[in-house]
Design goal:
305 residues; alpha/beta; six-stranded mixed β-sheet; four-stranded antiparallel β-sheet; 13 helices; 15% strand
């Protein structure tokens, strides 16, 4: 039998049909949608029908958690083995904790709605995926930009894979970094469709305000070991789990470190979310099989794991 790691995606995986699945009873989906609509004071269906609304961070984040909750139910309905380890990318860490019964569905929706609102109201910024350049080189370039230009700020935000690092910063910092990195060998510099600089010091004010609400939420010991973004390590202490969630707002996502740990302990990776972005990031790691639960053929593909 395969040893399974379950991973949960963050922003960028959302799409208008992401709550549709034939692996879960419709009554379960309707119930969850009603709960989320009440918490958001906004009809979930109307958000999904308007992609511009869906891409508003304060809506995107709780709706992605909703999608992962529905697909987590699908995982359980298929009677698959429990994972030996779990992880979530950025926002996905909340979905992972919910899957592990460390945080309730309602609390996960409430706290990610607040997280999205606070991030949305932060200083304007940009994020950019840098492909084909070593992360150490990218870090050195960012440091030089910050040291030499008072108006510019840029830093690595997501160490996604050996071939992809996402940088974030203010508009001036990203502009300079894009020009410099393109000139020293980056294969592509792709600007992401966001107007904030997640996982950098530009989130410091949001983190301060967020912490007060985060501390009020009751967490339980996760049912499955969880690797956290901030450290790339498994954490079991509840106060440390909370602190890592907070640090994650202003510090980079260590996904390469997370994937190294996953590939050393699991033979199979299953992405529980509306797309297969994390499956794509797992290609350079030694895993026997990789699946995503939103695949229309998922049920057939995982019969023998």
């Amino acid at each position: 039998m395969s040893s399974i790691a379950c991973v949960f995606p963050g922003q960028g995986s959302q799409h208008p049909k992401m709550l549709q699945t034939d692996l879960v009873d419709e009554s379960f989906v309707i119930e969850k949608i009603e709960i989320v609509s009440e918490i958001l004071s906004y009809d979930v269906h109307s958000i999904l029908e308007d992609e511009s609304k869906l891409n508003i961070t304060s809506f995107t984040q709780p709706l992605l958690v909703l999608s992962s909750a529905i697909l987590s139910e699908a995982y359980k309905n298929l009677s698959l083995p429990g994972p030996i380890v779990i992880a979530g990318h950025s926002l996905g860490e909340y979905s992972a904790l919910m899957f592990a019964e460390s945080i309730t569905f309602e609390d996960a929706i409430k706290i990610t709605h607040l997280r999205g609102k606070l991030m949305q109201s932060s200083e304007e910024g940009k994020m950019m995926a840098i492909l084909g350049l070593d992360s150490k080189i990218i870090d050195e370039v960012c440091s030089k930009i910050n040291e030499s230009n008072e108006k510019a700020y840029v830093a690595s935000a997501n160490y996604n894979s050996m071939k992809q690092t996402v940088i974030a910063g203010n508009i001036e910092g990203i502009k300079i970094a894009s020009n410099l990195l393109s000139g020293i060998g980056a294969k592509r510099c792709i600007e992401l469709n966001v107007s904030i600089a997640s996982h950098t010091r530009l989130m410091a004010d949001a983190a301060d305000e967020f912490n007060e609400s985060l501390q009020k939420i009751v967490f339980s010991i996760p049912r499955y070991p969880i690797i956290q973004n901030h450290t790339g390590k498994i954490e079991t202490d509840l106060s440390s789990i909370k602190q890592n969630l907070l640090n994650q707002l202003t510090e980079p996502v260590l996904w390469t470190k997370t994937m190294e740990k996953i590939s050393n302990s699991a033979s199979c990776l299953i992405e529980i979310g509306p797309k297969n972005i994390l499956c794509g990031l797992s290609r350079s790691y030694d895993l026997q099989s990789v699946f995503y639960i939103s695949d229309k053929n998922f049920k057939d593909k995982v019969q023998n794991i």
